[in-house]
Amino acid sequence: MTGDDGARLSRELMSHGLLVKRSAIPLIESVDNLDQLIQAALEKSIRLLDDSSVRSLIQSGSNFMETPEDGETQTKEIQKPPSKKFVGNSGRILAPLERKEIQIAPRPHGLEHYSIGDFPMDATEIDPEIDIHFDITGNSVTEGRLTDMQSCFTDRLAKIRKMIMDSGSLPTRPSRISDAWRERKSRNSPEMEVTVIGLVEFKRFGRNGDIQFALEDETGSIECILFPKPGWTKTHPVTDGLLDDDVIGVTGYFTESGRLRASDLHRPSLGAHQKATSGSDAAISVAFLSDIHVGSKTFLDAQWKKMVQWFKEDPLARTIKYFVMTGDGVDGVGIYPGQEKHLSIRDLYKQYGELARMIEELPDWVDTIIMPGNHDAVRPAEPQPALDPDVQQDYSDVTFSGNPSDFSLHGVRVLAYHGVSISDFVSSLRSVSFEHPERAMMAMLERRHLAPSWGGKTPLSPEPEDSMVIQTIPDIFVTGHVHGHHASQYKGTHIIHSSTWQNQTDYQRMLGFQPLPCILTVVNLETHAVASIPFV
Questions:
Q1: What digits encode the pLDDT tens for the residues 337-393?
Q2: Boundaries of domain holding 221
Q3: Alpha carbon separation from 318 to 122, 346, 522 (Å, rounded)
Q4: Is the confidence at residue 89, as pLDDT, over 70?
Q5: Are residues 344 and 433 in the same domain?
Q6: Using N-to-C axis directions, what is the helix angle for 51-60 and 34-43, rounded to 10°?
Q7: CA pair distance 213, 245, nearest whole angstrom
Q8: How far apart are alpha carbons 273 and 477 in whole angstroms?
């Protein structure tokens, strides 16, 4: 039996709601009538097929296996399926009633159904394998000085400039802005274009469909203007916009006024990413959720209990090894004026204690990863460290990480970010809205930066090294914060916007925003299949 045969058998059994241990696969392969074995297991309410349960089923059944007598091979008569027509006792040809195909019931929020066969392995068979590549916890060195801020932007520019240059898409070798300015009189025609790379500032849209902005590097600053061209998409910066402190390349020539008239803009190459897989020997799954907001009166407790029960009963749940919470596990205290009237638990430590109790209800094969958000008891400036050790002591079998966090699960790279900067993308880019947070995530990947804008809606810590730069393209990119839900792929990367466990708040009601709560997003690390499970 090949590994592919075993995988197909596992998927076939899981499509009937049965989990199988690898050690039992050869024994099941020896069964002549697999359908009868499946039927017997379902009748006896057996959901896990291991060596013991399979032998018990074989011994109790008479038709699972045919035992050859006297060493001779027996040939079983194969019954043909009944014809659509058959001859009755009266000799008349009768037509059976037409069987209607079972229609799958629609799912909440228009979520797609999934195939259990795409989630082939029981998580109880696998040891955890979590490798954290970046976490600011214990590594923050900023003193909040102007020199730290300058170092942060210099580091960002150097990292993303190299990505742009390595893409091989620049028409000419980039010049420093001071050198380009010095040569402006000779760079005054489309035939004598120059390329520069820098940070965007003072951007605005013009009256003629153009976008105007300044570009700055370590040596100077120049004004640029870009007019639209046929064929450019709605997400091109000339129509969509730019963010303050974006790092871009600009190719163009100088006008008589000294402005650089751009012919095109350049970003780091994203390309088509080839996802890593955990391999068939670790074909388990990871589940994502965010913004639980324990302690809030709008926390959806009944739906949480429904999910806990699902973990104990559903075959898909037994494939989940990791449970990743991308921030705002609690509602916090003093986060906004008047918050206390919206709290069911007004003590911060009791909120975290209740969250610990809730996580303890999950099955023991699940390993939880918790990172903070803007409601958690950590500094608001990003990158944020992990929760304080005084908070962590109430938890067992939990990995705590900062925000953002770059880690691997069995070799599959995950970039997890709470997502406060989505608000900056919404306010700066025409294509992005709170109803479509995934568009902000795509824009982050294109820019290779999670939160470019200094002084915007996202508080940033001026670390000498800008750790918000996306240096490695992830296999899975996950955010939260907005209380929506989305699961798709973008240029080879899973885009997961995790659902909340909080009902609509007064503020959201005032804005007319309807959250999509209580949807658990499950991704298999080997097949990369995605299932979104609603608990509403």
A1: 999 999 999 999 999 999 999 999 999 999 999 999 999 999 999 999 999 999 999
A2: 168-266
A3: 6, 35, 11
A4: no
A5: yes
A6: 100
A7: 11
A8: 12
Please identify which residue in the block is written with the tokens 């303890």: 360
Write out the two tokens for 520: 């658990």
In angstroms, rounded to a whole number, what is the distance separating the alpha carbons of residues 97 and 84? 9
**C-beta separation of 263 from 310 below 8 A:** no
Report the mean per-residue pLDDT for the chain.
Answer: 89
Span 117-171, pLDDT tens digits: 999 999 988 999 999 999 999 999 999 899 999 999 999 999 999 999 998 889 9
- Global pTM? 0.82
User: Which of 14, 35, 61 is where one domain is finished?
Assistant: 61
Cα dihedral sign, 37-321-481-413 = negative
Based on the fold, state whether residues 280 and 230 are members of the same structural domain.
no
DSSP calls for 365-402:
TPEEEEE--TTSSS-SSBSBPPPPHHHHTT-SSEEE--
- How many separate domains does the chain show? 3
Q: Which residues of 115-151 are buried (b: 16+ CB within 10 A; e: fewer)?
A: ebbbbbbbbbbbebbeeeebbbbeeeebeeeeeebeb
pLDDT tens for 421-479 read 999 999 999 999 999 999 999 999 999 999 999 999 999 999 999 999 999 999 999 99
Is the domain of 250 the same as that of 344?
no
Q: Which pairing describes strands 285-289 and 320-326: parallel, antiparallel, or unpaired?
A: parallel
Q: Could you tell me the sign of the dihedral formed by the alpha carbons of 302, 305, 306, 307, in that order?
A: positive
How far is Cα 390 from Cα 396, in angstroms, rounded to an integer?
Answer: 13
- Give the whole-angstrom CA distance, residue 123 versus residue 365: 7
Same domain as 196, residue 179: yes
- CA nearest to 242, candidates 485, 427, 457: 427
Per residue in 211-225, pLDDT (tens digit) is 999 999 999 999 999
